[in-house]
Amino acid sequence: MDTTGAGALIKALEDVGCEVIFGMPGGAILPAYDPLYESKIRHVLVRHEQGAGHAAQGYAQATGRVGVCMATSGPGATNLVTPLADAYMDSVPIVAITGQVSRSVIGTDAFQEADIRSITLPITKHSFQVHDPADIPRVIAEAFTLALTGRPGPVLVDLPKDVLATATTYTPPKPAAQSRPVLSPVQIRNAAQLIGSSRKPVFYVGGGVIRSGAAAELRKLAEKTRIPVVTTLMARGAFPDSHELHLGMPGMHGTVPAVAALQKADLLIALGTRFDDRVTGLLPHFAPHAAVVHADIDPAEISKNRKADVGIVGDCRDVLAALTAVVTRAPDLTGWWEYLDGLRTTYPLGYDWPADGMLAPQYVIERLSTLVGPEAIYTAGVGQHQMWAAQYVKYERPGSFINSGGAGTMGFAVPAAMGAQAGAPDRTVWAIDGDGCFQMTNQELATCAAEGIPIKVAIINNGNLGMVRQWQTLFYDGRYSNTRLGTHDRHPDFVRLAEALGCVGLRCETKSEVDGAVLEAMAVRDRPVVIDFVVGQDAQVWPMVAAGTGNDEVMAARGIRPLFDEEE
Amino acid sequence: MTRHSLSLLLRNEPGALARIVVLFSSRGVDVESLSLGPAERGDLSRLDVVVDLQPGRTPAQLIKQLGRIVDVKSVVDRTHDEAIELGA
Predict the structure, then answer these.
(1) For residue A69, which of A48, A90, A88, A89 has the smallest C-alpha distance?
(2) Total structural domains in chain A?
(3) Which residue, of A254, A454, A524, A563, is most buried by count of CB atoms within 10 Å of its CB?
């Protein structure tokens, strides 16, 4: 088929199954937009390239497919840097396609030139710059395969303008060979042996279980062995919150039973997780009595932060299936469950209503979860609202919570919700956002309104950069330096802002209005809805392991250290 | 700091060397010496590098991190070989 580099690009994207591109045109990428005009691929015209990148991430996590974003050279490409870094940290499969200045002027500081390949070297799994248009179909197929296989991640394809404009012949790429690591039967046996002889084991489940689609296999093994399960921030939904074996989220803002399960365990069965500092606290104090079985598809993660006694390189689905087949002897966990159930009863998640009589943010999220249910997709930005969204929404299925875990990117929620909704049009998508985060990326609501992407946004508006304020309260003597945003005084007025952007805007300030506001938002189907939940500024996220301390010092509330005190 | 001598085979692709060097700098690896030359196969290059690792970081970890770079075909730890050559 005779075409141009640009034609080959769009045809190649169609052939690898791309159904939507989030992007914005500009000079260098312009040739690609011409064949896109008549392509069956949907293009969502964003208002800022960062929104395109996060939308691609939201799409990828809602569908399990590769998300695609596109931008022009120079500033268009550099605006994708944050989403690429985010996708790299959270292992999200996205492909970023960027225009580049023509080959003859690369390296001359040409207009809108940026060396985006070099800029993104540490935050991409791989990148290509194509110099021969005949290579484009092969490169696109490789980029998709690389993004999705092994440990997923972002791949960049940089396309000089003249390469896009040059005539070429389209040759369909050969399907790329996809291999999964072969499990070591010895390590599986060793792991099974440790499981069989343990007295206090725990499944420490990370995002890899969701990426590999291993939730069903996890449930099977957990139910067979009755071993307790904790799910990290990236793994919320990998195991049902309603399940009796589930102790909740571990880590800095984890539940007391989940933190205790890791601390007191004699065996951690770590699955698709990387012993991140937000989970481990001070590493030398983390799970001091536990042997470690660590399964991950990325060999570089095993023994990176915590030495594994048994390391298994493999896809979590394969690992769990293999373990289920060989684990015959379920350990006797009576004493272990007595201890953990005691903590569950004594230290359930809970919150106080603010002393100033304002709305409790946790209550808003709890009601949202109850009214909207587990079939919806929830996204979050970063900060207090994110932790409450992780704690108080009840997740029952993988892919139902999409947030920025490793990078901690404020402003993630709205564009990620847009991408998730585009990929899963039949699901309700709620962005749970903070007033700080919302002001970083709310321009994409104009995109949602124009494109008919009816996301719903719950702004947990506490008038402050809440998590930073919480740290100032706890660690800086309440000196609130530059955390007050003034959004309680309607600067800006989020209801009017939402309406100006083409959405329905609602406001809710009292407990009695919460259900009504959520139900009203749920009834709107033809455009996005924003609810401004005006909540108290002094609510804090608890439990908490203060940064730089060990997990034994987890505080159920300020000054209450259940694990520390019991040892004294 | 511990010193290690690594030998890599990498594909002759633009950016391959840059990706390796960036890995060293972003993971806090000190490069003592580095030499790149053609390998026997024309489409591959050989990179010999001597690195210093911070306390707590292992060469095995670095080798795995290098190994996940798409253009790196193989990584071998030659620390021990060199000791033999020097008669140590």
Answers:
(1) A48
(2) 3
(3) A254
Contact A420, A59 (CB under 8 A): yes
Residue A249: domain span: 185-346
Domain-ending residue, one of A169, A201, A227: A169
Do A379 and A505 share a structural domain? yes
Provide the residue type at A411 as one letter: G
Residue A139 clears pLDDT 90, i.e. is over it = yes
ipTM for the assembly:
0.91
The CA distances from residue A231 to A61, A403, B82, in Å, are: 17, 14, 46
A303 → chain B, closest CA residue: B61
Question: What would the two tokens of residue A170 be?
Answer: 């389209």
Q: What angle do CA A557, A559, A560 make, to 5 degrees?
A: 60
Q: What is the pLDDT of residue A568?
A: 46
Q: Decide if pLDDT at B87 tops 60.
A: no
What CA–CA distance (Å, rounded) separates A119 from A140? 21
Structural domain total, chain B: 1
Give the integer Cα–Cα distance in Å for A395 and A369. 9
Q: Which residues of B touch A303 (CB under 8 A)?
A: 58, 60-61
Same domain? For A126 and A101 the reply is yes
B61: nearest CB among A118, A122, A304: A304
Structure tokens at A278: 């937000």
CATH number assigned to the domain comprising residue B76: 3.30.70.260
Is position A20 within any domain? yes
List chain A residues with CB under 8 Å of B67.
299-300
A273, A302 Cβ separation under 8 angstroms: no
Residues of B in contact with A313 (CB under 8 A): none
Whole-angstrom Cα distance, residue A564 to residue A278? 19
pLDDT tens for A347-403 read: 999 999 988 889 999 999 999 999 999 999 999 999 999 999 999 999 999 999 999
Q: Is A542 within the bounds of a domain?
A: no
> In this complex, do B23 and A300 lie within 8 Å of one another by their Cβ atoms?
no
Which sequence positions of A are flagged as catalytic? Answer: 49, 111-112, 161, 467
Interface touch B64/A299, C-beta < 8 Å? yes
Of B18, B61, B71, which is closest to A300 when you measure between CB atoms? B61
Q: Are residues A310 and A390 in the same domain?
A: no
